[in-house]
Amino acid sequence: MTEIKIFYKRNLPHYQPPGYMFFVTFRLADSLPVQSIIALKEESQKVLKEIAGYDNIEVRKEKYKIYQSMYFGKFDKLLDSSSYGPKWLKEEKVADIVKEIIHYNDNKTYSLICYSIMPNHVHLVFTPVDRSEASINSKTSNEASINSKTSNEASASFYIVTKILQDIKSKTALRGNKILNRSGAFWQHESYDHVVRDEKELKRIVEYVLNNPVKAGLCEKREEWKWNYCDFEKLT
Fold it and tell me: Which CATH number fits domain 7-31+86-235: 1.20.1730.10, 2.40.50.100, 3.30.70.1290, 3.20.20.140?
């Protein structure tokens, strides 16, 4: 059996253990200036080097968790405030396609929790579906037991986060480009993904996602944003 990696690193670290819920953010191609990305990367390398210097493993984990949240906050603030790059998702027909495909995959490859489609990026929260199940009935718990399987068997059983995003991106890019009468890269290749570890963190992330349009000045109340969605029954 081919081993499936649950951790890998490109420009960003990716930790994708099977059976967990994920908060992901993907953005349009060239939606941030190169200088901003370089500055964030240089800062990240410096901070991660400092964190690696701690002898205590638990301290390193906690420091990394705090910095990961700070890094994402800076990254998302840049996206919200940036006047740079395309804003193709402001086009209703394009945003409709993204919305349609996100919902289409619900209960097929993942169980959808919530999303917000912004002018140049998308926030999405979901739990990959176990391939061996016809449908997913669990609500939000990441505590579902997979102890009867080896790590690699469990990884093979659940749909892979990277593949889920590739599917969403490829389908929306093809149709989005057609509407915009353009060709070329539509989405930035790499996405941000984060494991949602418990219900407390889930509720905090959902609040962040739904309030993002308000924070970005796109609307006064989150209920006014047409491109917000949440299945609140999965939060109870």
Answer: 3.30.70.1290
Q: Which two tokens stand for residue 232?
A: 């609140």
**What's the pTM value of the predicted model, to 2 decimals?**
0.78
Query: Does 6 have pLDDT greater than 70?
Result: no
Over residues 191-215, the pLDDT tens digits come to 888 889 889 999 999 999 999 999 9
Phi and psi torsions of 117, nearest 5°: -100, 110
pLDDT for res 118: 96
